[in-house]
Amino acid sequence: MQTKLSSDTKEMNHAVEQAKKQREISISEFFTKNRHLLGFDSPLKSLSTTIKEGVDNALDACEESNIPPTIKVEIKQTTPERFKIILEDNGPGIVKEQIPKIFGKLLYGSKFHKLSQSRGQQGIGISAAALYSQLTTGKPIKIISKIGKDKPAYYYELHLDTQRNEPEITKEEVVEWAPYHGTKIEMEMEGKYQKGKRSVSEYMKYTAVANPHSNLTLVEPDGTIIEYPRATKEMPVKAEEIKPHPDGIELGILINMLKMTEARTLQSFLTTEFSRIGAGTAKKICEGANLYTKSRPSRIAKQEADNLLKVMRETKFVAPKTDCLSPIGDELLKKSLKKEFDADYFVTVTRPASVYRGNPFKIEAGLAYGGTIEKDSNAELIRFANKVPLQYQQAACAISKAVTKTNWKQYGLSQSNGNLPVGPVVIVVHMASVWVPFTSESKESIAHYSEIIKEIRLAIQECGRQLGKHIRKQKKEKDAAKKLSYLEKYVPVIGEALQEILGNVDEKKVTANLKDVLERSRK
Prior knowledge:
Layout: H1 2-21, H2 27-33, H3 43-64, E1 70-77, E2 82-89, H4 99-104, H5 125-137, E3 141-146, E4 153-161, E5 166-175, E6 182-190, H6 200-210, E7 215-219, E8 225-228, H7 251-260, H8 266-273, H9 279-288, H10 302-314, H11 330-340, E9 345-350, E10 354-356, E11 359-369, E12 380-385, E13 388-390, H12 398-404, E14 425-433, H13 450-502, H14 507-522
Parallel strand pairs: 1-7, 12-14
Antiparallel strand pairs: 1-2, 2-6, 3-4, 3-6, 4-5, 7-8, 9-11, 10-11, 11-14, 12-13
Helix pairs in contact: 3-5, 6-11, 8-9, 12-13, 13-14
């Protein structure tokens, strides 16, 4: 008996000791140990990810304020392993109180609950870059921001308090800064700079393709300046915010919405918190779930919410509105491709809007063919999500799956099973959505939803058919030219033969007439 009590006491003591060791983990601490989840898993990728997050934020800010973006990225090498990154934009600037939180607090942003197309989603990106900078060099992130011509420019130096996930301000002052408005940030971090595939310059080039209204400048570590001028002065259509569509709702989300809503009745909850539910439809849903239309949403029990959801899933709703999307547009996409690629033929297409899990999306695709594009290698595949280039995790992406599963041989290109086609072609695919289903927090590949893959395949097949016509036409013209060249070669011989057969014939005149016939046939 005493042995059993002693054993029980020992186990209880262990439990108490374990309880003492347990504590809350802040989001900053978690990502400090798991920075690879955010795209900071190598020196090369970390540099590219930092620039990507900064440029994405600048583009979003400019577009929301209807300002044609002008963005400069400068990279300076401070030691063999360290680089200083300076990003400057002409956006609306950031109000003083928000500067520390935006750059020094993970999961702080305005877009997570907003259902409209935007580049950022989680409020992680730029603060994660600041965290990586701090981890690898111990140096603070430096920010200057100004919101108007006659307003002061505020300068901050910040560290991240990883235990509390709060900004730690080490310096704050008003400074002189010439621009009327905008933001400038500076970070120093461990990194690796290279040119070519998956480089910063490739990212900037691709960003210019998807954002023809932007003016981008890259200053490389060796001082090389690369300009990516805007292809249009026309600003993209502004994406409007929409309410959630009932087709994409799950039980847990519905229960939370019922608790948080300000609507006083269940019927008004359904009509005000969702898109595409009118008063009549809301009444039928309530009746189908055996719930009163005037019930208070906060008092709906879990089982009642489950019944409500079942009826909603059995109801057919009109597809979501698409004014929440801002696609590139096939004409502007073609113009961008012509600006960045030396090719002979271009084709682009924008598909009608579709839906996955209640989220509207559009797929755009384009091809550039011929010219100086490499002939004997795999096609260059450029993937975009909400106008942001996806440079990594290509094999895991729904776009890659759709492209490689397409039969490119029928469009005049060679292809081995499960691979990209071979030939002088660049393939571009863009997904515009209110919520892109990325496979990880690093936002580098799109999840394999069947609805998304179907739309991608339809878009690239449409482009492929146009390309096939062009290639067949090229081949036909080449064959005709080859046959004509044979005839041209033997024109003098034919003239000489006719003179011998007919006798009194001007050989030179016959030869000239035959050449004239050949020239007319070429036309």
